[in-house]
Protein 1
Amino acid sequence: MRLHIPRVATALALATTLLAASACGGDSGGPGGSSDDAGGKVTLRFTWWGSDTRTKLTQQVIDAYQKDHPNVTIKGEFGEWSGYWDKLATTVAANDAPDIIQMDEKYLREYADRGALLDLKKAQGLDTGKFEPDTLSAGEFDGGLYGLNAGINSFAVVANPAVFKAAGVAIPDDTTWTWDDFARISAEISTKLNGKGWGTGALGTNEAGLNLWARQNGESLWTKDGKLGVSPEKTTDFFKYVLKLRDMKAIPSAEFTSQDMNAALDQSAMATGKLAMSFIWSNQLLAFSQASGQQLKLLRIPSTDGKAADNGSYYKGSMFWSISSRSKHQKEAADFVNYLANNPAAGNVLLAERGVPPNTEIRTAVTPKLKPADAASAKFIQDIGKELGDPSPAPPVGGGQVEKIIQRYTTEVLFGRQAPDAAAKAFLDEVNGELK
Amino acid sequence: MSALGELGSLRGKKTAGQKRDNLAGYLFLAPWLLGLFLITIGPMLASLYLSFTDYNLIQAPKWIGLDNFTRMLSDERLHNSLRVTFTYVFVSVPLQLAIALLLAVVLDRGVRGMAFYRSVFYLPSLLGSSVAIAILWRQVFGTTGLLNQLLDLVGIHGKGWISDPSTALGTLVVLNVWTFGSPMVIFLAGLRQIPSMYYEAASVDGAGTLRRFFSITLPLLTPIIFFNLVLQIIHAFQAFTQAFVVSGGSGGPSDSTMFFTLYLYDRGFGNFDMGYASAMAWFLLVIIGIFTAANFLLSKYWVFYDD
């Protein structure tokens, strides 16, 4: 009775293990077009990313729609931003894409250029008559409409008045503040909180920060013809500023920041009251306010010269509604998107959680009903309206990766592993390499 | 006459009963065979084809010959991912096997309640590559995690172990070492098979504990060590879940936990670069193949088969 693991058995065991190493694949092609399920039961799949707040509101709208359309069942598939795109890519590759997709500007061209999205101009029953032309054009290119604007937002500073109060620092005037003011105030808060909190989250965990920095200096992250528009010099300055924030202790430690980059919104440092300020998209004010249990406040992005009109801000399509080009129920999907965009009942539930409604009638109808946080973000969007710069060009194909790339180089800089100029050059090289 | 020859001569004169037996045999094999061809061989061949193409997941693949493979030569992030993976394999596997062997020897001494300890030590192996444990790891090694709370008790102010590029990979090594249970159980079984008369004879000759371990236990255990070594190396090369979950899918901070498999996934599903990702998968297969072949070649010099 000896335990024997002879060579043959070892070889066999490893052969089977080896095989698992390379099994990866995909499927291409598939049925398109809409089938007519007149009177029949139709199941639509609808995917979105977002916080609990968004998921609850969206589910409410789905329930209301299903009540009116008993033959349609809508299955929601939702998750956090990180992970959402991997999952979407996988389902699209497997020819199993959800019918209705919440899309981001970063990936819109990526999917549309490759024929994965339906041209909404050709979709039956989708009315865009009440949309401002500007808000429509964000989802439009090559003569087609591939994403319907689901809300307008803007990059902003979010402030937690409770943390300001705890530090005994007054909330500054955001119409005149400069980047130097921002750094100084943040550092002051960190000092006063003495380890219990910090002045601000790091700039550079989101490429929008770099874009605004570039726009304040006469450049722009992307050009209209789909290239990188920011120079190595300005990018270096940007990373130098990030480093300055670190050295002044305006931001938490590098470790803390790198951990916070991957945290879900509800567990992030801003939502848990560890930061007095951070950078967010204006429509996230509601989610952050609910997660933190505080009435947070939006502030304008600081500028170089102390003039808010020069801070490079722009209206962005916070997200878009897209329909899979391979959906078997395009008609029904278009009808649901139409409901999301144009029906007052949906508007009254969704309010401004995804950004200020681009449908002007809905916007007027819901404005009085907005929750305080949404009302504040809607007012913010309105207030900055007269200070805006040119629209910001959408990222080209391959540009979707820029967020992950800038996070990585910001981490390199914060840990002192790369100097700002080296990081700037490597960052730009890598982004260029991704553009197709 | 070789066994194959005998089989050949038997063929053709099968009885009805034998044929029925064979059919039954294949029927029982069918689920596994179907799985092998549909879930393993099929996708593997597809990925071999894709590795020579530019394939963005949505449009049809475009043949580009060896471009994907030449691109790997100049891909800095790929080189970094190789460094990370090799570090992980060569640090965690020896450590893990050493601990497994040590505990197996201790448990083999007839500790009371051995079945209990065996199960307890084996548990991490069952859980080790699960998402739940990886999430737990994030909590344990985070800035305000369990480890730092313990360190605080003794007055040391710990750092964010998983969010610092210099220690993040270390936490994953610890996680892998922690799953020493499965090699340990195999070691235990191997130890049980060493005839006690060898030890008795050695004791009579005056050999001490250490001497008995190095002159009897270790040599007779070499086939088992070899088996464990080969399997654990392959296993470690393929590690993915832990790094993916602990780093939030980013391989971060600063690519310090960017395993080869994670980078492969990132290229394929994050960057719509499935042709390149497929080429990487085949490259990994070749790397693992080379290491395994080397293991087998070297085994001649140190593995002792007592038969």
Protein 2
Amino acid sequence: MTRRQKKNLRRILLAAVLTLAVALIPAGLLPTVWGGEEERTLLRLLLFLCPYLVVGGDVLLSAGRNLLRGQLLDEKFLMAISTVGAFALGEYTEGVAVMLLYQVGELFQGIAVGKSRRHIASLMDIRPDTACVLRQGEYLTVSPDEVAAGETIRLLPGERIPLDGRVITGESSLNTAALTGESLPRSVSPGDRVISGVVNMSGELLVCVESVYAESTVSRILELVENAAEKKARVESFITRFAHWYTPCVVAVALLLGIIPPLFVGNPAEWISRALIFLVVSCPCALVISVPLSFFGGIGGASRHGILIKGASYMEVLAGAHTVVFDKTGTLTRGAFRVAEVHAVDGQEQALLALAAAVEAHSNHPIARSVCEACREEALPAVTAICEVAGQGMTAMLNGLPVLVGNGRLMAENSISYTPFAGIGTVLYVAVGGVYRGCLLLADEIKPETKASLAALKACGVRRTVMLTGDRAEIGEAVAREIGLDEAYCELLPGDKVARVDAMRTARPGLIYVGDGINDAPVLSLADVGVAMGALGSDAAIEAADVVLMEDRLSKLPQAIQISRRTMRIVRQNIIFALGVKGLALLLGAFGYANMWGAIFADVGVMVLAILNAMRTMYVKKRKE
Amino acid sequence: MKKTWQLEDLDCAHCAMKMQEGIAKVDGVISVSVNYLSARLTIEAEEKDMNRIIQEAVKICRRIEPDCRILL
């Protein structure tokens, strides 16, 4: 609690004690001290005014000030009017109680919002305080924004990395939990890139800074989350518009209620009392505060799990997503080739792989590298005279015999008879001394969690899953079949992807596009929600997407949808609950069935409950995996 | 340029809205947002106007919510 909140709490407690004391003085006690009926009423009024002024003095002052400035529909002014009105009608206890509970509500709201603010701030506790920079042979501790690109900083174990850079010396493991929500350590050695916001765990590192603080990953992420509240959801704008009209309308009805019926049926005190009930219920605070608070909490809770949602409006779309479109390579599949099958004519698969690896070891082509990775043999055959044939493969010499490793064209050019292999992926044929020896099938591997994540998406209410790829139809369709996608569009050029997504989005809004965020920025921005995966350290992806999954894990997408759906559910609960109770109170009040106590509940009670409900959004359960 | 300040004791959402509306009317302000939940004031304006604008903003905040302070 801040100092001001503590002061208010003391005032509320004092007033509560006073009210209780005054209310409990037996009516019979007063006349023995003083004489007539009139004095007794006056004394009671004076006694009740004490707690009233203690707790509501500042509200009256501020209401008076607002009155002078012509701001009639201020909530403080409404509270002042309704409590003064209650006093005028002789309902002293109610008058004090309304003011007292109003202040309790305000205090509670302040504490709740402060708590949420701190909670979110602690989630986003990735802002580094200092950087230890090497200048003229000495280490100086400075603020991260004073460090220029190209300078060297030192990181001790346990420290948060303040700036993006590359390791010069030292080995260590890093804890990326603050950014990704997963506490899987990541090891780094000289030459590796390190990202600001993660914690250095085990060893001392010297890092060459690559970008200034304002452009570092951590400041981009913080800026993004802090600005998320600006992109308002449709339901939020609705509440703002609603609040704009609700209060004036209720106040107008209150006025009419207090003036018109008494002209016909008399009994003005009763009608004014009903009008006062209207005034107490006229504040839309429950909604105005709880709806943005729900989104704030939801976005904060998601960011704790490495899911950055750039605005409440995207939460709304995520919650009601109909179609999810995926890019294949790098999203559903690893985007890296892997040796899937080896077929040797003589049955010696290991030897064939070793031979291919020995030749391919001299190339930097991604296919060559994955062949080398697949080979476990330590001692590779000694090949010489290695030569790369562009677009075909490699040639070399082994024990005086020519070795060919490459595609069908390489075999055909060297007039080697081979059996074409009909597998899904890229096929490498191997021939030695002019004789075909076997082949290797390289396939882009599907990520292990792809299938489960797609099933989880369906469980979240997604109707249609679509894959777009520039890859060959046979490969694309095989992948789609294996992981259980509804549709697959293959052999697309980048422009085709844009057109395809545009058509689907027009046909049925609520389209999520998931990509790696690097070469599909136009599609990301076109979709209703563009999701970039594995964006940790990729500034371009963080810029382009609406939702950023910090880690390269598709399972975060169903989680993001679940968090959004839960947030929307809480928002809807609050709207229905608050409007329902207020509507009921207004209706009952108008017909004389509700008293001041009911009105207080409809105002303060509903607000407190709505805020408590909204705060649930912050606490996102760790998903069972 | 855009600049952001922290607000202390910003206790009502309605006041935040009124502050935003008030500051938006100050001459030279390109855009302004008063965020109740993060308790932040962000003003976009030409650099030369910034000093004058923030002084105006302090006055506006004091008028609307006397308890709330802009942490300069």
